[in-house]
């Protein structure tokens, strides 16, 4: 099949590369010329494990191209996938300007039957809007379909090539048939539904996952007060098939470009339909608070924040999760900001997200370190905010030597007490008894 993918962000780029891997001819389009130039020259503008190898392979086979010429890309394609951003507007609602612009260009480029697929996460009813825009600019026959994406940053290639399910929201049998063909080698779990339900499945899935996280984080907070261990509790809960073991990892809350944006958008969508989504509002509020638990633990161990003046605090991990350089809505942003506000000196280190973090939060009191050990030097405490593999392999005997006080506040619960048995470390985590 000939496929055009409009938008080369996470979803567009990974989808484009993976559709090429399935044997299709794919043209990825973006308005940002610099980005396209990087891609044309063999670069990948995002950090995503495995993506470059797959892109190189398909480029060599002539199945993957990049252009900023939307009209040409659409003209050459049977399936046109819209994967542009839907950033949050001032009230949390999804901003649809890029979707609408893409629809206009598709309409102008139509030269025969095509299926226009919306992959971006969009409020219920957006596909119909796209249909109207395209229809207003062409007499050609086309169909519209919603095929939401469920990939995670950091495992995006695997999630796309081995998905749990494919959701196809479409009314036209011809479009359904074409899209089933396109995805049939990926999974037997293909759900065909109406367009509005497909749009809702994406929001409801992300909102539910966010709910699981805020739920376990509140359980963790209670565990701390009553002396229970949330990891034990989550294991015990997760063995119930109705609950499942996933997304019950307590910590400093979710970040990233998806959960924060989509939960707020769904609250807004509900509100527009005159429904007060109370549960989801609480999920968002719990998540906002949860990251400050790290600061509470610093206060509990070092003393009130006014005593933080001039004190060095190591910060291990800035990305919103491991295996990505993405810092959007990362808990580290608020935590480092709070440290700065109280006069502390954050000594930050992340294996890949340093530049991105600096472009969002740069401050003279931040020390940018080249290793986890350097971030620990002369520190009163280390706050671990992202569960990078390299932190799990830390030699704490060496770290202890360079710190002023061997104190680790682990926001991701990556260690057990055994880890510190030969050290002087005082170890705090989330929802578990302190150790040391
Ligand atoms: C999320 C969804 O998992 C994808 O299915 C969806 O396609 C994507 O959003 C999207 O809408 O595009 P992503 O944001 O890449 O993917 O990352 P996740 O792995 O879901 O993690 C999100 C956040 O939740 C991270 O900050 C992570 O640290 C946190 N998390 C996750 C927890 O705190 N606890 C957990 O148990 C799981």
What is this entry, summarized?
With 436 residues, the chain is an alpha/beta fold. The protein contains 18 helices and 14 strands.
* Straight-line N-to-C gap: 60 Å
C-alpha Rg (nearest Å): 24 Å
Cross-sheet strand order for the largest sheet: 3-2-1-4-5-6-7-8
User: Regions with pLDDT < 50 over 5+ consecutive residues?
Assistant: none
The overall average pLDDT, rounded, is: 96
Structural class: alpha/beta
What's the tally of helices? 18
Share in helix = 40-55%
Summed up, the domain count is: 3
* CATH fold-level name of the largest domain: Rossmann fold
Enzyme class: oxidoreductase
Pathway: Nucleotide-sugar biosynthesis; UDP-alpha-D-glucuronate biosynthesis; UDP-alpha-D-glucuronate from UDP-alpha-D-glucose: step 1/1
Protein name: UDP-glucose 6-dehydrogenase
GO molecular function, one term: oxidoreductase activity
């Amino acid at each position: 099949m000939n496929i055009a993918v409009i938008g080369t962000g996470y979803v567009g780029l990974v989808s484009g590369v993976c559709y090429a891997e399935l044997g299709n001819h794919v043209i990825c389009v973006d308005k940002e010329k610099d980005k396209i130039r990087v891609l044309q020259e063999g670069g990948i503008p995002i950090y995503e494990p495995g993506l470059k190898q797959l892109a190189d392979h398909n480029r060599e086979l002539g199945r993957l191209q990049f252009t900023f010429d939307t009209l040409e890309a659409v003209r050459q394609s049977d399936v046109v996938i819209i994967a542009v951003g839907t950033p949050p507007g001032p009230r949390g609602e999804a901003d649809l300007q890029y979707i609408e612009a893409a629809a206009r260009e598709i309409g102008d480029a139509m030269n025969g039957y095509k299926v226009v697929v919306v992959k971006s996460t969009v409020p219920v009813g957006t596909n119909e809007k796209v249909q109207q825009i395209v229809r207003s600019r062409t007499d050609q026959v086309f169909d519209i379909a919603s095929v939401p994406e469920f990939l995670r940053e950091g495992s995006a290639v695997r999630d796309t090539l081995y998905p749990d399910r494919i959701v196809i929201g479409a009314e036209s049998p011809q479009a359904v048939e074409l899209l089933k063909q396109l995805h049939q080698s990926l999974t037997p779990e293909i759900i065909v539904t109406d367009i509005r339900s497909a749009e809702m499945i994406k929001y409801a899935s992300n909102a539910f996952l966010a709910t699981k996280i805020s739920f376990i984080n509140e359980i963790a907070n209670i565990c701390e007060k009553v002396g229970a261990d949330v990891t034990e509790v989550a294991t015990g809960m997760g063995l119930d098939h109705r609950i499942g073991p996933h997304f019950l990892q307590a910590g400093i809350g979710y970040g990233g470009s998806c959960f924060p944006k989509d939960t707020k958008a769904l609250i807004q969508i509900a509100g527009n339909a005159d429904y007060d989504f109370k549960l989801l509002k609480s999920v968002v509020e719990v998540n906002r608070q949860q990251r400050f638990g790290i600061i509470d633990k610093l206060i509990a161990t070092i003393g009130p924040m006014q005593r933080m003046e001039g004190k060095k605090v190591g910060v291990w991990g800035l990305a919103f999760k491991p295996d990505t350089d993405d810092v959007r809505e990362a808990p580290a942003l608020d935590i480092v900001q709070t440290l700065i506000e109280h006069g502390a000196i954050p000594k930050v280190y992340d294996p890949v997200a340093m530049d991105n973090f600096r472009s969002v939060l740069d401050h003279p009191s931040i020390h940018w370190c080249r290793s986890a050990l350097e971030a620990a030097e002369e520190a009163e405490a280390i706050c671990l905010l992202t569960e990078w593999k390299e932190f799990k392999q830390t030699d704490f005997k060496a770290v202890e030597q360079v710190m002023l006080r061997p104190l680790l506040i682990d926001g991701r619960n990556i260690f057990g007490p055994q880890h510190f048995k030969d050290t002087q470390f005082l170890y705090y985590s989330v929802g578990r008894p302190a150790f040391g």
